[in-house]
Amino acid sequence: MTDSSLILDVNAERLQELLQSAGYRVTVSEQNGMVQLLSASQGVGFAVRLGNPSAEAGSYLDYTLSCALRVQGELPVGLAERWNVEKRFARLTVQGAFLVLELDVILAGGVSENYLRATAELWDRLLQEFLLFLRANATGQADAGQEQEEAAVEAAN
């Protein structure tokens, strides 16, 4: 592979084409003067935010895939930390009323087209695992609450 075949930066149009070729429906949007791409996987919406600009106008050296879910009720203690210990590629944070999963994709220095496709596939897989992780933890929290309730009833008798 020669350096000329490496992708050194990316723009919104190229990312849109990449995601569409992977089977995603993609909408280009603008928020606070910044272009972003909106899509969904596993029935969950996500955004692609362009990061650091490259020397070429309208192109970027990196981007972030981001999924923000509104939290209803209380989150289990240490939920985001548990995810971050178990998963290496994407970080989970609590931002106000949102649980946010993010994956940074860095092109600086050059990457292949296959790398960009692989990161889209990785993101899809991470979203699947994220939903399973949330379901498992929601079930675990409900079970713990039921056990505490049953223990309180037994203590009262």
Description:
This protein has 157 residues and is α+β, with helices and mostly antiparallel strands. 39% of the residues lie in helices and 27% in strands. A hairpin with a 2-residue loop joins strand 1 and strand 2.
What are the SSEs and their pairings?
Blueprint: H1 12-21, E1 27-31, E2 34-41, E3 44-50, E4 62-70, H2 79-86, E5 91-95, E6 98-106, H3 113-156
Antiparallel strand pairs: 1-2, 2-3, 3-4, 4-6, 5-6
Short description:
Helices cover 39% and strands 27% of the residues. With 157 residues, the protein is of the alpha+beta class.
Pick out its properties:
157 residues, alpha+beta, Yope Regulator, Chain: A, 39% helix, 27% strand
The average pLDDT value, as a whole number, equals 86
Radius of gyration: 20 Å
CATH fold name: Yope Regulator, Chain: A
Question: Total helix count?
Answer: 3
